[in-house]
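Colleagues,

For the teaching module next term, I've prepared a clean inverse folding example: a structure given as tokens, and then the sequence designed for it. I'd like students to try predicting residues themselves before seeing the answer, so please don't circulate the second half yet.
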């Protein structure tokens, strides 16, 4: 069984709810808290690149949490707030043992979430090209 000392950071999982549409027909989504658990988080080296003439960086990490009924409902559509930063879940969370004790997921920050991309453009741009 994983040692309790490794799970020493709080991870707050959030899910986006569909709260209707704005005046331009764009989906309004509000992130609400789903569950908060103790976690073991390991940040890995990120990468930087030049996109549209500006430096952009992103970071990746691995998050492990204890198996629970609430944790089994976490999907790649959710996100997690840990160490004060918002991280996107990449791929489906997996059980790393056959005893239902630990769930592991890959995280990434510094990139947009699919539904948030529409907010990056003005309504005129969105209606002309969307």
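(Answer key — instructors only)
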């Amino acid at each position: 069984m994983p040692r309790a000392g490794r799970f020493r950071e709080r991870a707050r999982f959030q899910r986006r709810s569909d709260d209707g549409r704005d005046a331009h027909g764009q989906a309004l989504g509000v992130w609400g808290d789903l569950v908060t658990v103790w976690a073991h988080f390991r940040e890995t080296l990120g990468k930087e690149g030049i996109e549209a003439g500006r430096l952009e960086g992103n970071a990746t990490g691995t998050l492990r949490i204890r198996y629970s009924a609430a944790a089994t409902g976490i999907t790649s559509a959710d996100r997690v707030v840990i160490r004060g930063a918002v991280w996107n879940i990449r791929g489906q969370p997996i059980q790393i043992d056959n005893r239902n004790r630990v769930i592991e997921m890959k995280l990434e920050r510094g990139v947009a979430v699919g539904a948030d991309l529409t907010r990056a453009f003005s309504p005129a741009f969105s209606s002309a090209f969307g």
